[in-house]
Structures are given as structure tokens and as C-alpha cells.
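User: I'm putting together notes for a lab meeting next week and I want to include a structural view of one of the chains we've been expressing. I don't have a solved structure, so I'd like a prediction I can at least talk through. The sequence is below, exactly as it appears in our construct file.
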Amino acid sequence: MPGLHSGSSLVRLASLTALALLFAGCSTNEPFEEPAPVPEIEGTVELDRIWTMDVGDGHGDQFLYLTPLNTGDLLYAASADGEVYAVESGNGKVVWYKKLDAEVFAGVGGDREQLYLVTRDASLMALSREDGKVLWETPLPTEVLATPQSNGTIVVVQTTDGKVLSFSTQTGEKTWQYDSVVPVLSMRAAAPPLVGSEMVLAGFANGKLLALASDSGQPVWQYEVGQPKGRTELERLVDVTGQPLILENAALVVGYQGKLALVNLRNGDEIWSRKASSLHSPMIGAGNIYVSSSNGDIKAFRGSDRRELWTQDRLSWRQTTQPVVYDDYLLVGDFEGYIHIMSLEDGSLQGQLEFDDDGLRVPAQRLRNGNLLVYGNSGKMTVFELKERD
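Assistant: Thanks for the context. Below is the predicted structure for the 390-residue chain, given as C-alpha cells.
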């Protein structure tokens, strides 16, 4: 779960203590919530390893979100110490390897021609997808944690102090910049901007989802996902740190201490909403909506009327990742590196695997061949197949 960001300095509070304060709205001498113990279950399914490899030092000892880029046949993965790999998704064969002369803070983003990373010293870097050659590098005003996103013409980054910047994919020259108002206190996380041919969607720490014109950066519309309430800055946190999900002509978005909402892409009008709190993107499967709540509970809502179908509360305060749908199951990771497998139908726990002692922060990804890609905080990257247990 993200830490906190205050002004230009980072407030690195203990994660669980901070979260307890967020929910309780209480003084620091009151007890905070303990994470639920690892559930004991009778598993009916298991994850069978197809291949595995180590990607440098992973996130190192830093609070990063270095999500691998899945392009179908190839995976691109980076580590905090500057190692970048192109790997065949089917068998784990390394196609090329690059050791950068810089530490990596955000990535991997990409389009058909290039990959995009942000370095620790706040530079945006473009690499060739063919061999990892550095094509250009341009300085940024401040730190970036969210993965750069591109539509092939521009690449967009979002800084931790609320700036959205667009650069030419060919030259690295800045094409526009948008500055938002950032609260005094915010989460140390940011939603990767969603970059289309005509519009960029960006979520902010002030609880707003904003649509910007891709060619100019001019605001098109804004929607309030969360409204700050309460007497303290902790109570007033309303960060939108999960990337919106596009459903035809609408965007599905959720915020911290805010709501889950479907918004018209054309004008930003609300189609529907309900109260929710999450730091991750929602997930769709079997006609329903699945949310990893900020307190670790996993919730399922019926897509047709948003009625709550079930809540899995045996993972409370375990800092669960964004869920991923795998056939009839829903999978999440947690801060101790466990992968939990739930039934889509009722949320019951059907399987479990201890994957990475350093924990899991980025969500698993479904590959084109139906297998599951998991990238742990230590840099362990593995592809699994889900099987019924004998």
C-alpha cells in the first residue's frame, strides 16, 4: 500500500500505521489494524510454474511499481537497478538484455516502436523495442512513479506533484504540460495516465478524474471521484491512484475514500456511482465488477445494478493488489508475497501460493496464451498455469 507524500518531501510512514490512521481518523496513540493472518484453506486449484527468471533487484528497497509490459509474444521488464529485459512470454527465453547507466523509478511503458522508462534522477528515457538501445532522454521537473503511457505520437508522464507532461515520441521534445492542485498530504502513488488518440485521462490526488485533449493538453471535462471531508489531512485523502477502465464509451474509475463510478467519456457526466474506497483499478469479469478495497477486502458487485454480491474479508489489511480474472477465478497478491485464488461466484478462497518473500505490489497479468504473469518485489518473474488440484 502506498506511503504518503507531503509537499515536496516524502513522508515515509510505516504502511500499516498510516493505513490505520487513514481509516480510523484517530490520534497516533490509538491502536492500528493488524493484517489478517494468512488464511488456512483447503485448496481446489493450484498454480503450476511454466518458467521463472530474476529481473535484477526488482523494486530494490524502494516503494515502486515496475509493472512488466505485456505485448503478447514478448514481455519487457525492468528493475530498479537499471536492468531491462525482453523475454519471450511462452518460454522465458531472453531476446535481449540492457543494463542502463541509471536507476529506474517508473515503467515499463511502450508503443509499437519504443519503450519508456523514468529514471531515479527524473529523466524520461525512450528505448528501442528491437534491441533496448537508448533513443533519447529528456529531463522532467520532479519524481515520477506512474508508468509512462503512449499512443504512438506522444508519451505522457504524471509526476508526484500533480503535473501531466506530454512529449513527442520521435524527438522527446515537450509538447504540452498541465498542472493540477495537489493537497498538502497525498499517497505516494499515482495512476498511469490513459492515453488515447484524442484524449488523455488522468487521476489526481485531489480526487479528480480529468480528460485532457491529446494534442494540446487543454481540459475537456473533469469528474469528482472523491470529495475531501473531515478535520485532518489524513481524513481528507481522496487520491485516485488506479488507472480508469474503458468500457465502450465510458470510463470505470474508483478512488480512495470516494466512489466507484461509470463516467461518460464524451462529456464526463456520471452514469452511475456507489460508495467505495480503493487504491487500485477495478476489474471486470463474468459481467461483474471486482474491487480490491483499501482495507484489503475484496468486493464483487453485479454489473447490471451494482448490488454487492460478496465480500472476502479474510485478507483484511494485507495490502492486496489489483485483482485479475482467470477463467472462473479471481487472483490477488499481498504484502507478504502470497497469491490468493478466489471463486468468482462467491469469493471463497480456492487456492494459495507463497511466491515472493519481499511481497507483491504490481498486479498479475493474463497473457495471450491464457497463462498468468507474476512479478514480485524482489524481481522474481514467473509465468504460471492454473490447474485443478488432483
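A couple of points you could mention at the meeting. The chain has one domain: 4-388. Residues 15-24 form the longest helix (10 residues).

User: Perfect, that's what I needed.
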